[in-house]
Amino acid sequence: MKIENHWLTQAHKVPSPNFDDRPIDEPVSLIVVHCISLPPEQFGGNYIDQLFCNQLNPDEHPYFKDIHQLKVSAHLLIKRTGGVTQYVAFNKRAWHAGQSVYNKRQKCNDFSIGIELEGSENQCYTRQQYEMLISVSHSLLDSYPGLSPLQVVGHSDIAAGRKKDPGPYFDWNLYLSSIKNQR
Length: 183
Known about the structure:
Layout: E1 3-4, E2 7-8, E3 12-13, E4 19-21, E5 30-36, H1 47-52, H2 64-67, E6 76-78, E7 84-86, E8 92-94, E9 101-102, E10 105-106, E11 112-118, H3 127-143, E12 152-154, H4 155-158, H5 172-179
Parallel strand pairs: 3-7, 5-11, 5-12, 6-11
Antiparallel strand pairs: 1-2, 4-8, 6-7, 9-10
Helix pairs in contact: 3-5
């Protein structure tokens, strides 16, 4: 898997308007793993793309009435099948972490890459998702010198008490052991 001009060459590109520039001289130094499903606990479809592109129709599901006006994005989505969609270039600031703190540093969006796994805090992730997440992580670690396998967290780690994802079913041991020898 290659990264060219801050985009994964193998990813399906769905550019989101929900991004801006990172602060000057702020290197990418953190990977944040999230999960998302729209509607909750349902997989497939284009609702995540629609949310990240400000096109979610509030009349298509009752849950959407509360979230359709959110201006959010992530850099990547890894679907249950292992397919990857990229919404924001890695050198730009995606809006995925919200109020967040990592090692006493506020505003994690400034220095992180957000990866969403299509899933739920209440269910296991697929083998294809782990394989793709590991492959993507290797590419990111090779491309961005500020990253290391020690700087990978869940959304719950940087927004404690506010967020729970990727949840207890995410296999941190499998994931971290697969990237730990990087660098």
